[in-house]
């Protein structure tokens, strides 16, 4: 069995299609199909079952996956060691993150890391959902709750705080907010209820808000609605310094604490380059949250 064949197998397993694997590998899908067929013939067993939904792994494919991922990690570690990457970081690293973290923390944190590592390429995938590291959607991900399953390692980065907020312009034009009962007379901003991908993000239900007039699956859209005077909503404290005129409300009655976690594939812990980047990333996020919250 050749390493190139295992790379093809991993690409199909993660994308669940020949065309998706072809895009990852930059080869024609027909070539991917031939390589998979050759590997299956050599092993004497089917690795995938084709259906209208795509290519699903068979039991044999599931058993091979663990070995292929260990081989991938070993190859990556060998390349790093032979390249002598004890100095500056280089190459491409992709981070998955919820868009609040991706918009208000990661740009400056990653810029600082790259200032010391000019050959490094960083990709930030800002999506309001949980990332599947097993399918290599990202090299590492930041989450707001630790995953309960999968061959993953989880490191708590830091706590962060959130409060109700509105713009001064909105508050001048609407009735005063002296208690939670007053919120029923105000336009609330929040998540689309059936698109909340993590229970830790269900802020408004916890304070008794039943109706969200301005809703989005993106925390950045919510933030801009609030900043522009659209209504009242829950805002990350670390985002407030980026918008003049935002006022925190009912801080003695509503004060939420959540956490960021750094999530990685277990096999990647043997890769020095990713370990060093993960350490710098976690340290940078921790410092940036503390700095920005101190400005509020």
From TrEMBL:
Keywords: DNA-binding, Transcription, Transcription regulation. Residues 1-58 form the HTH lysR-type domain. The keyword Transcription applies. Pfam families: HTH_1, LysR_substrate. It comes from the Bacteria. Belongs to the LysR transcriptional regulatory family. This is LysR family transcriptional regulator. It comes from Seohaeicola saemankumensis.
